[in-house]
């Protein structure tokens, strides 16, 4: 127990979490958070997250179930969005941040409705990763127009 406290105060535990973090894990944790934000984690949203991780974030189809379990555990253990948004800020350019926000909108709209909590969370993430508001709106419009054309 004292070792854990020493690690906590020395920052060693934080460093080990950062070294284990990847763009794929950070994105997956944020995608899962959006899917849970309306208090109804729809199976279609979970399937959409799997599809996005395979198609846009280079997670192999063979590893997707294990990866989703890892991301869900990471998301569950986290008390804030900070570790994920910090990783995004440190490692992504504005185009990659925009693509992440598009992916978040795609998960939010997958069940046919963008809940106010989903909207708020995506706006918050967009602000935390310093994406310009015009890009946030453009991403939302892109996804809603695409969903309306289905």
UniProtKB/TrEMBL annotation:
Family annotation (Gene3D superfamilies): TerB-like
Ranges for domain Co-chaperone DjlA N-terminal: 24-140
SUPFAM superfamilies xrefs: TerB-like
CDD domains found in the cross-reference section: terB_like_2
Domain of life: Bacteria
Record protein name field: TerB family tellurite resistance protein
Organism of this sequence: Zhongshania marina
């Amino acid at each position: 127990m004292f070792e854990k406290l020493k690690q906590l105060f020395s920052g060693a535990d934080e460093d080990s979490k950062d070294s284990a973090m990847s763009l794929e894990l950070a994105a997956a944790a944020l995608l899962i958070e959006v899917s849970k934000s309306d208090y109804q984690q729809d199976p279609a949203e979970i399937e959409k997250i799997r599809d996005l991780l395979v198609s846009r974030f280079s997670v192999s189809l063979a590893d997707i179930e294990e990866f989703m379990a890892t991301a869900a555990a990471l998301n569950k253990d986290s008390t804030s969005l900070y570790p994920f948004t910090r990783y995004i800020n440190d490692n992504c350019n504005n185009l990659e941040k925009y693509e992440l926000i598009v992916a978040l909108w795609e998960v939010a709209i997958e069940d046919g409705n963008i809940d106010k909590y989903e909207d708020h969370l995506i706006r918050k993430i967009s602000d935390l990763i310093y994406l310009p508001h015009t890009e946030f709106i453009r991403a939302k419009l892109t996804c809603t127009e695409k969903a309306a054309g289905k």
